[in-house]
Design a protein that fits this description.
Chain D: One of its GO terms (molecular function) is transmembrane transporter activity. The complex is a heterotetramer of chains A (332), B (507), C (325) and D (353). Chain A has 332 residues and is of the alpha/beta class. Chain A has two domains: 151 residues, Response regulator (Rossmann fold), CATH 3.40.50; 168 residues, Rossmann fold. Helices cover 44% and strands 18% of the residues of chain A. In chain A, strand 8, helix 8 and strand 9 form a beta-alpha-beta unit. In chain A, helix 2 packs parallel to helix 9. Chain B is of the alpha/beta class. In chain B, the strands form four sheets. Chain B has a six-stranded mixed β-sheet with strand order 6-7-8-3-9-10, sandwiched between helices. Chain B is globular and about 70 Å long. Chain C has a domain of 215 residues. The chains are: A alpha/beta (332), B alpha/beta (507), C mainly alpha (325), D mainly alpha (353). Chains in contact: A-C, A-D, B-C, B-D, C-D.
């Protein structure tokens, strides 16, 4: 029940902070995908919006379109006195390292990477744990014993998703076959839904009946193809269950929105925490989405096994291997 | 044939200005049906402009045109076609990758689908071939046809469109005498059918041979109209250039020196892999002009390209002063004293979009003469060099910074000749030196080549202009189908025999 | 046998799907360049058309309305291209590049302004999409051993634009080689002077060629966002216009070779997708994903260098037509 | 109608008018997006030249554009359409990074940087020379091969960065930081804070070198002959094939300048997609600059200003979609490049009268 604790803590901060509310000017620098990418960046955006709605404090935003703009944008916000500034995505690490050192009095947050500076909060997620649950659900929902994974680009983060997914699936069905495809090697790989659809169809034609995507904009094509073929897709980052109600088994949630809101709330309460924060299942930082859109797909048994698995992972009885620890995955 | 019928074409006071140049200045012209009407004049006299106006290529600034006595406006080629005015351009307006029948149909397809029109065109081609002796394979690709055949295609095109007035712009420039005779026979047949034919040319011989009437242009003005039977070549020549032309010379016999260039059993293929030169051997001596006569497309182009280093021969050897030079590139050959005035000015001789001074060092661009410190090319030196060349060789306008394409053909050619002769090479290869050059220019160029010979240099001259070959050569070799089919002495060459050899009709 | 079919049928079906927009775009380039206007703006026109199709289909609920809008939008860009290249005799390559940049910016800007969904359009469902069309009498044909399944599996079940793409190949060949318009258009790309001398307007023909390219890119764009995909998202054409341009050159500016070339690209792609993660025989581990992804491109280069002869573009392509004085 | 304009009108007035028109139409787009065009233009102007920081960033982006534009231009001068600058820059970056990673801790800083620049140029040149060779010797159209080579380079880079060169334990597919890099211009007294670095003077030098090479050497003369009249090359004794290969190699080496500016001057490590599409923008830069180094530098400055001003515009007007800047860029390319002759006829009438 730790997630409740987390939420309660947030609530306390929010209410308790009213009295001691600091004047803060939060800002977000999005990654290349842009604030409306329907997944990762959009979740951060949503977190900021929730904070803005709740407190009336305006959240400034900037979307980078070229590599050098990262540093430029962070510095721009810092110079104008924005704080805390959320840098979204691992690609911002070195830019943040530079700028955060320049502005020791400004607070920064980085998602998906670590910057060891006294004014930076580094937020990491245990994507493998969320993906593990997604994999379990996929294996339970699959009738063919074959499931699929479509990644955007073959980079460590995506391998981390894939590795957790396969582990979860194997935990349910050790014989299950998992097809894996990566979309491409150019930036277009993240925004090519037609190719995403083709990859999904190729997996479906090989018998896959549940397909998990971690491919940004390309993923909409994956979910579409799965829905068109009467199979199931699994969304990522944000809750994408609503995209094709009844055809999206679940979505692997990565609560960057919560992390963002929380960071702002801390700052407003004058309690901004720096250092490393790792959000996994136990912190409710990752998870799988259950809502009215997938209610019909989730059996009671499924639900209970997922809850059980979550409890075991939280309790440390089950360990999900993190690809990043040794750059390899024990299962294929 | 003069009758009460109104003339097929009547131009009244046609005036056309390009910028500051008055190309046509109140020009009048009357052309009757059933006649061949010559329009003569030097390059730049305004003949082509007048014809372009008649053909709707651009509008006149003022003046009027009457067709069959009715005033008309000709805004584009389609208008001209409706009025039965068709033109055979000097540079053929043919689509080279297309078949003959497609070219003939283009613009007169007879319906949205080609099927019906094509059948019609084939039938018409067959009929016209029989009627006028204009035989061409309708399925041949134009790019595969020799020049003479291409011209027949142009004429067939015009006839197929129902030409009543046929304008031919310098039609014989690329033809053998026999082909020219053939053409004239066709033209006479057309005249006898009642068509009006306008022949634009600067060749007085042709005018005298084939026309019924002749109009002379000079400097944009129409200076005279004559019945051909009542004038002479001499009078026309004088009217054309405004003075008495220099008497045509035949070369004085020369005493050739030692052999300097030797070609042995040369075989050359073109880009398409067709063998164009099939075992040519020849020897060129110092102090001689050796003329290669032949109809265009018989291998002389490839021969020149192979000897000049532009194209690697398939086999055979070329020696310069006894040393083999086969396979050396053109730059190396220039350094050895073998220069080349190419047949095609705009494709090879200069770079149209370069400034004239840059075209003036083409092939000699590596010369240390225009280098400065660090071996960099000095723009000023290049410009000064070109300015001197232009001054010494009367290239007009003498503006080294003007774009090469903006010079007239004659001046371009003068610049190329100046460039190639400046270094006094022992051997000069010359292809079509006077193509598109006006009479004054021709005289100057011929005089230069003769002077060159007198200086003890050797000239290999390739030309399809028989007059030119005869006027310059000490010896004449005739090339046909990639082989040398005959040799004649220059001074006493029998034109008829030459013509037959060129046509491959005699061994 | 059945196992082979299990493998081959989906790959061939995917080949047709992937090839369809490439064919449309390559044919578009074919018409423009045959008329003498180089078109590097295929990508931009497709992208803008994809946006117009998805946006219109989302609002009206009709894929056909979307297709119409796509054709209009793409043609509007084509008109700009024609004006720049034919009327003003501007640089054809610059114009094409400008259209690519403009289309990328404009489609995303408009999508964001109109739908407020991050530059995407709403997902399309039902009649707003071109649904797969089953082969008539499929269940009956499928009974035929071997061939039946091949036919139903490969040829059947595609959306309308896919069939349009394939139908357009013979149509394009017919128009170009069997009609008056085609004859003139091709002549225009080889020697516009001859066309002019024949009393036919070069400008009008080139406008026609470029506008046909606009229409075809419009269909290609609609295929991408309303048949193969089900919404527009920014830059979703992902470089297909450039692949189509390459296919056009490999195909030597001829319709049937365009078909074979695009099918070749499609097949390589479909096979490459299948090869991802498949262990290499004898090695036990799969090739790196990136090697498989690069495979179609590497093979294209090798094929081009080894077997396909020199490409000969229409001679007048890229050259503005100026009447000679 | 085609009377030639005076030189000053051709080179200054006409482009200025076209730019104005482009901005005018852009203003309409901004208006359509519900924002104030005046404010947007002001943000664009101040954002690109309003402070030393902005000027520095403008120059930094312009450096990328200059290298890309020069790379495209020299290939164009040889009659080749190099769409492969993206890939050549990527491979150039790879060569550069390998030297830095291998030697940056053992050799003196200046030496290793020079070696890295040389290695980058060499790698880019090699990657450009292959399509050149294929064109010259096998007749493979350079447009196709360079498109293909872009994809191949991207795949290679992802493979190496993810599997070989990645900094262990890191999420981002990028190498470790280089110990040294090109010093920023601020080390030499350039005011403000921006990543503009020694790659800028290097780009200027490259432009000068391109000008000298192409317009002031016999070799460059031959290059231009091949580009404008390949038939004449044989006549002049110029080896067309070798010029093509060399032109593509030089083009690739110039493309590697993007890597020098981005990786050695700003990022200090090899990252994915550091070119950010500069290779494609370079085509427009080259053509707008009429393939002449001076023109390319001016066009590069314009595009640098648009990139930087566009970023600031996004800051000032967050409600304006970031893609609006692309619209402005597209319009500028369209009006100053392709529609460049729009005012030519009226202007020549006006000036001729």
């Amino acid at each position: 029940m730790r997630r409740l604790v987390l939420k309660a803590l947030g609530a306390v901060l929010l209410s308790g902070g009213v009295a001691a509310a600091q004047e803060i000017r939060p800002a977000i620098v999005f990654d290349m995908g842009g604030r409306n990418d329907r997944s990762f960046n959009e979740a951060v955006h949503r977190g900021g919006q929730e904070f803005q709605r709740a407190t009336g404090v305006a959240v400034a935003e900037f979307e980078v379109t070229a590599e050098p703009q990262r540093e430029q944008a962070l510095r721009n916000f810092a110079r104008r006195g924005h704080s805390p500034i959320v840098a979204v995505g691992f690609a911002q690490r070195s830019a943040l390292q530079t700028v955060a050192a320049e502005f020791p009095n400004i607070n920064f947050v980085i998602m998906d990477s670590v910057v060891e500076l006294p004014n930076v909060q580094s937020v990491l997620f245990r994507e493998e744990q969320g993906s593990y649950l997604a994999g379990m659900m996929a294996a339970m929902a699959s009738r063919s014993g074959r499931i699929g994974f479509v990644g955007g680009m073959d980079i460590p983060l995506i391998r981390k998703f894939a590795c957790g997914y396969v582990q979860g699936a194997r935990a349910v069905n050790p014989q299950i076959q998992v097809f894996q495809n990566m979309t491409g090697s150019t930036p277009a790989a993240w925004r090519d839904p037609v190719r995403g659809g083709e990859l999904a169809r190729s997996q479906i034609e090989r018998g896959a009946d549940v397909i998990f995507h971690a491919a940004g904009g390309t993923g909409t094509g994956v979910l579409q193809a799965a829905a068109d073929a009467g199979r199931l897709g699994i969304g990522v980052d944000s809750n994408q269950n609503h995209l094709h109600p009844g055809r999206v088994l679940t979505s692997m949630l990565k609560r960057v929105d919560v992390a963002t809101r929380l960071a702002f709330e801390q700052a407003r309460a004058g309690q901004f925490r720096t250092g490393r924060t790792v959000l996994g299942l136990s912190e409710d930082g990752v998870g799988v989405a259950f809502d009215e859109n997938n209610a019909a797909l989730v059996t009671a048994e499924m639900r209970s096994r997922i809850d059980q698995a979550r409890a075991e992972i939280v309790a440390g009885r089950v360990t999900v291997h993190d690809f990043m620890t040794n750059n390899s995955c024990p299962v294929q | 044939m003069t009758s009460a019928a109104p003339p097929a074409i009547e131009c009244r006071g046609i005036t056309k200005r390009f910028g500051h140049v008055l190309a046509n200045d109140a020009v009048d012209l009357v052309v009757h049906r059933g006649s061949i009407h010559g329009v003569i004049g030097e390059n730049g006299a305004g003949k082509s402009t007048l014809m372009a106006i008649l053909h709707g290529f651009y509008p006149a600034d003022s003046g009027e045109i009457l067709v069959d006595g009715r005033k008309v406006s000709i805004d584009d080629s389609a208008d001209a076609a409706r009025l039965g005015i068709e033109m055979v351009h000097q540079h053929f307006m043919l689509v080279e990758p297309f078949r003959v029948v497609e070219n003939v149909m283009l613009g007169a397809e007879g319906g949205a689908l080609l099927k019906h029109g094509e059948a019609e065109a084939r039938a018409a081609l067959k009929r016209l071939a029989e009627e006028y002796g204009l035989a061409v394979d309708p399925d041949a690709r134009v790019e595969d046809l020799p020049v003479g055949a291409r011209q027949r295609v142009e004429i067939l095109k015009a006839l197929y469109r129902g030409a009543e007035v046929l304008i031919l712009d310098e039609p014989t420039g690329v033809l053998t005498p026999q082909e020219a005779d053939d053409l004239f026979r066709v033209l006479r047949a057309l005249r006898d059918e009642g068509k009006a034919i306008i022949l634009i040319t600067h060749k007085l011989r042709e005018v005298m041979a084939v026309t019924d009437r002749v109009s002379v242009m000079r400097g944009g003005k129409m200076v005279a109209h004559r019945e051909t039977s009542e004038t002479s070549a001499a009078e026309l020549g004088e009217l054309m250039i405004g003075r008495r032309p220099a008497a045509a010379q035949r070369p004085a016999p020369s005493a050739p020196g030692p052999e300097i260039l030797a070609v042995e059993d040369l075989r050359v293929r073109d880009n398409a892999g067709v063998e164009r030169v099939r075992g040519v051997s020849l020897a060129l001596h110092a102090g001689e002009i050796l003329g290669i006569a032949g109809v265009a497309g018989n291998g002389q182009t490839e021969l020149l390209e192979a000897v000049s280093g532009m194209r690697a021969p398939e086999s055979g050897t070329v020696r310069l002063r006894g040393e083999p030079i086969t396979g050396l590139d053109a730059a190396a050959l220039r350094r050895l004293g073998l220069a080349h005035v190419p047949e095609d000015r705009l494709r090879h001789g200069l770079i149209p979009e370069f400034e004239a001074c840059e075209s003036a060092i083409l092939g000699y661009h590596g010369d240390p003469a225009w280098r400065r410190f660090l071996g960099l090319v000095s723009g000023r030196k290049v410009e000064a060099h070109a300015a001197r060349l232009m001054r010494e060789n009367d290239v007009r306008p003498a503006l080294p910074r003007l774009r090469s394409s903006l010079f007239s053909g004659g001046n371009q050619q003068k610049l190329i000749l100046a460039r190639e002769m400046e270094r006094e090479p022992d051997v000069l290869l010359v292809g079509q030196p006077t193509r598109g050059v006006d009479i004054g220019g021709i005289e100057a160029i011929h005089e230069r080549l003769r002077g060159w010979r007198r200086a003890g240099k050797a000239v290999l001259l390739v030309s399809v202009e028989l007059d030119e070959i005869l006027a310059l050569s000490d010896r004449i070799l005739v090339i046909f189908d990639g082989r040398i089919v005959g040799e004649l002495p220059g001074g006493a060459a029998d034109e008829r025999r030459l013509g037959l050899l060129m046509a491959g009709a005699a061994a | 046998m059945e196992a082979t079919l299990d493998l081959v049928v989906p790959i061939l079906a995917a080949t047709l799907r992937v090839a369809a927009p490439l064919i449309l775009a390559a044919l578009a380039g074919l018409f423009a360049e045959r008329s003498g206007v180089v078109d590097v703006g295929l990508e931009g026109k497709m992208l803008f058309a994809a946006f117009a199709a998805a946006a219109t289909a989302a609002v009206t609920g009709s894929a056909w309305a979307g297709l119409g809008a796509a054709i209009l939008a793409s043609s509007a860009l084509a008109l700009i291209h024609a004006f720049a290249c034919v009327t003003l005799r501007g640089s054809q390559v610059v114009s094409g590049m400008a259209i690519n940049v403009l289309a990328a910016g404009l489609s995303a800007t408009l999508a964001l302004a109109w739908f407020r969904q991050g530059g995407q359009t709403p997902p399309l469902t039902g009649a707003a999409r071109f649904a797969p069309i089953p082969l008539p009498g499929a269940e009956w044909i499928a009974e035929v051993p071997l061939l039946g399944r091949l036919l139903v599996g490969v040829v059947g079940g595609h959306a309308m634009p896919v069939y349009v793409a394939f139908a357009l190949v013979p149509l394009a060949a017919f128009v170009l080689w069997r009609t008056r318009f085609g004859l003139r258009l091709r002549a225009c790309g080889e020697n516009p002077g001859a066309v002019d001398a024949a009393g036919v307007s070069v400008a009008r023909l080139r406008y026609a060629g470029v506008l046909i390219a606009g229409v075809l890119c419009g269909i290609a764009g609609a295929a991408i966002s309303t048949a193969q995909g089900a919404q527009f998202s920014p830059e979703m054409t992902a470089g297909r216009g450039f692949i189509a341009l390459a296919a056009l050159i490999v195909a030597n500016w001829k319709p049937w070779p365009v078909l074979w070339t695009c099918l070749g690209f499609g097949l390589l792609d479909a096979v490459a997708i299948r090869l991802q993660g498949v262990p290499v025989p004898g090695l036990g581990v799969p090739f790196p994903v990136q090697a498989i992804q690069a495979l179609p491109y590497v093979l294209t280069v090798i094929l081009l260098a080894g077997f396909v002869g020199r490409a000969t573009a229409p001679r007048a392509a890229g050259v503005p037509y100026v009447k000679e004085r | 109608m085609n009377r030639e304009l005076p030189r000053w009108a051709d080179l200054a007035l006409l482009p200025a008018l076209n730019l104005l028109l482009a901005l005018g139409v852009s203003a309409l787009v901004v208006l359509a997006a519900g924002e104030s065009p005046a404010a947007a233009l002001q943000a664009l102007a101040i954002g690109s030249f309003g402070s030393w920081d902005s000027v520095g960033y403008t120059l930094f982006y312009a450096t990328d554009m200059a290298f890309a534009g020069l790379a495209v231009a020299i290939a164009f001068k040889c009659g080749l359409f190099n769409i492969g600058v993206e890939g050549q820059a990527a491979i150039g970056g790879l060569g550069l990074a390998l030297v830095m990673l291998g030697l940056d801790s053992t050799l003196p800083a200046a030496l290793v940087v020079i070696l890295a620049v040389a290695a980058g140029a060499l790698a880019g040149a090699a990657y450009g020379a292959i399509p050149g060779w294929l064109q010259a010797r096998r007749g493979s159209h350079v447009v196709i091969t360079t498109i293909m080579f872009n994809f191949i380079a991207a795949s290679l880079l992802v493979y190496l960065l993810v599997n070989v060169l990645i900094e262990p334990g890191q999420m981002a597919p990028e190498t470790r930081r280089f110990a040294v890099g090109l010093p920023p211009l601020s080390d030499f007294g350039f005011p403000g804070r921006s990543p503009v670095n020694l790659a800028l003077p290097l780009a200027l030098l490259a432009a000068l070198a391109v000008w000298v090479l192409v317009w002031r050497t016999p070799w460059g003369y031959g290059l231009r002959v091949v580009g404008s009249n390949p038939d004449a090359a044989a006549y002049a004794g110029i080896d067309q094939g070798r010029r093509i290969i060399a032109a593509m190699a030089i083009s690739g080496a110039l493309a590697a300048g993007i890597a020098v500016n981005e990786l050695l001057g700003s990022q200090d490590k090899l990252i994915l997609n550091f070119t950010g599409g500069a290779g494609f923008t370079g085509i427009a830069v080259a053509l707008m600059g009429r393939n002449h180094p001076v023109g390319v530098l001016l066009a590069a400055l314009l595009f640098g200003a648009l990139a930087q001003g566009g970023a600031e515009l996004a800051f000032e007007m967050p409600d304006l979609p970031r893609e609006t800047v692309m619209v402005v860029q597209g319009l500028v390319i369209l009006f100053t490049g392709a529609l460049g002759a729009l005012f030519r006829a009226p202007l020549s009438r006006l000036l001729g009268a």
